[in-house]
C-alpha cells in the first residue's frame, strides 16, 4: 500500500525536445517511455515536424524565441513545480532556446535540490554537426555545466572533446574529461566483434553495456536511451544496473522493430520491453581512465 509520503513525493519529469506527428523520436519517444515507467511528464516541444528529417524534407515549425521563453517562464511559476523530480532536454530548435532551458533547470533545482537534470546534447552524428554552431556552443557552454548527467553519442562527444574517438580508450578518456561528471555515451566502441555499446563513465566507474549491431536502425535510440536511463535512476537503480537494464530495453525494442521491418521504433507494440526486458546484454566493468591509460576489463559485472 502506498504511503502518503510516497504519494506526495515528486515524480514528474519535464521533457524539452522535438515533437513529430509520426514516429518515435524526441518527445514522442521520451514521453512514452517515462509515462510507461510511471512518471507524469510535462512535455515542451522545441520544434514541430510531421516526421523525422531523415525521412525527407518537410515543414519545420519553431516557436518564436520570445514565446518559447514566456512558456518556460510560466512553467517556472507553476504552482505544481514541487511535483518535478527531473528535467530532460534533447533536441533544441534554435540557439535562443538555450537560455530558457537553463533558467528552467535552475528554477527546478532551487525548488528541489535533489532534482536531476539530464542533458542529451542532440547536435550531430557520424556526418558531423546538424545544428547551427551557435546552438551547439550554447548547449556545451550553458547547459552541460548545469547537468548531472549527459548522454551524447560518440560523435557528439567527439565535437565536445575536439578530437576523433576511434577506440574505447579515447572515448573513455574524453568522457571522463568532459562535463558533467556522469556521462552516458551511446554508439560507443564495443569490445565484442560486430558490436556497439553504451559507455557509462562517472568519477569512480567505467562501465560498458554492449550488444550486436543492428544494421540501418530507426531513429530515436538516443532519445529513448536517455529517458529510460533517467527512469531507472529515479527508480533507485545503481548505475551498473540502470545501464544494463536500459541497454537491454532499447536493444530489445530495436531488434524487434528491425525484425518487423519497421522504419520507426514500435514502442507501443513493445512497451513491455521497457519494464521487463528479456534481451541479454554484456556488461563490462572497465579500468577507469583515472587509474590506467590502457583499456581493459577489470572484472565481470
Q: Which fold name is given in CATH as the topology?
A: UDP-N-acetylmuramoyl-L-alanine:D-glutamate ligase
Straight-line distance between termini: 33 Å
Please provide the ordered H/E string of secondary-structure elements.
HEHEHEHEEEHEHHEEEHHHEE
What's the CATH H-level superfamily name? Answer: Ribokinase
What proportion of the residues form beta strands (DSSP E)?
A: 15-25%
Widest sheet: strand ordering: 2-1-3-4-7-8-9-10-11-12
Q: What number of structural domains do the residues give?
A: 1
Q: Please state the average pLDDT score.
A: 92
Q: Level of helix content?
A: 25-40%
CATH second-level architecture: 3-Layer(aba) Sandwich
Nearest-angstrom radius of gyration? 18 Å
Structural commentary:
This protein has 301 residues and is α/β, with parallel strands linked by helices. It has a single domain, classed as Ribokinase (UDP-N-acetylmuramoyl-L-alanine:D-glutamate ligase), CATH 3.40.1190. The protein is 37% helix and 22% strand. It is built from 10 helices and 12 strands. The protein has helices spanning 4-8, 27-36, 65-77, 97-111, 133-143, 154-161, 168-177, 221-234, 239-260, 272-275, and strands at residues 12-20, 41-49, 84-89, 116-119, 124-125, 128-129, 149-150, 182-189, 195-201, 206-212, 282-286, 297-300. The strands form 2 sheets. Strands 2-1-3-4-7-8-9-10-11-12 form a 10-stranded mixed sheet, sandwiched between helices. Strands 5-6 form a two-stranded antiparallel sheet. It is globular and about 50 Å long.
Amino acid at each position: 500500500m502506498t504511503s502518503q509520503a510516497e504519494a506526495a513525493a515528486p515524480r514528474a519529469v519535464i521533457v524539452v525536445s522535438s515533437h513529430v506527428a509520426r514516429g518515435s523520436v524526441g518527445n514522442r519517444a521520451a514521453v512514452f517511455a517515462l509515462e510507461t515507467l510511471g512518471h507524469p511528464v510535462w512535455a515542451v516541444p522545441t520544434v514541430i515536424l510531421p516526421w523525422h528529417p531523415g525521412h525527407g524534407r518537410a515543414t519545420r515549425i519553431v516557436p518564436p524565441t520570445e514565446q518559447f521563453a514566456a512558456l518556460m517562464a510560466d512553467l517556472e511559476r507553476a504552482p505544481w513545480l514541487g511535483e518535478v523530480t527531473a528535467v530532460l532536454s534533447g533536441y533544441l530548435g534554435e540557439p535562443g532556446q538555450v537560455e530558457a532551458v537553463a533558467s528552467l533547470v535552475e528554477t527546478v533545482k532551487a525548488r528541489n535540490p535533489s532534482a536531476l537534470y539530464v542533458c542529451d546534447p542532440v547536435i550531430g552524428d557520424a556526418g558531423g554537426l546538424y545544428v547551427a554552431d551557435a546552438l551547439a556552443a550554447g548547449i556545451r557552454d550553458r547547459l552541460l555545466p548545469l547537468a548531472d548527467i549527459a548522454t551524447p553519442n560518440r560523435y557528439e562527444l567527439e565535437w565536445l572533446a575536439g578530437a576523433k574517438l576511434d577506440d574505447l580508450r579515447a572515448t573513455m578518456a574524453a568522457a571522463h574529461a568532459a562535463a558533467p561528471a556522469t556521462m552516458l555515451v551511446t554508439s560507443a566502441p564495443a569490445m565484442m566483434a560486430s558490436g556497439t555499446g553504451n559507455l557509462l563513465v562517472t568519477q569512480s566507474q567505467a562501465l560498458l553495456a554492449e550488444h550486436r549491431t543492428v544494421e540501418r536502425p530507426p531513429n530515436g535510440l538516443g532519445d529513448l536511451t536517455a529517458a529510460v536511463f533517467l527512469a531507472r535512476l529515479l527508480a533507485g537503480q545503481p548505475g551498473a544496473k540502470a545501464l544494463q537494464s536500459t541497454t537491454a530495453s532499447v536493444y530489445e525494442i530495436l531488434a524487434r522493430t528491425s525484425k518487423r521491418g519497421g522504419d520507426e521504433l514500435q514502442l507501443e507494440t513493445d512497451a513491455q520491453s521497457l519494464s521487463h526486458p528479456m534481451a541479454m546484454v554484456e556488461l563490462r566493468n572497465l579500468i577507469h581512465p583515472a587509474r590506467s591509460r590502457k583499456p581493459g576489463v577489470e572484472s565481470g559485472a
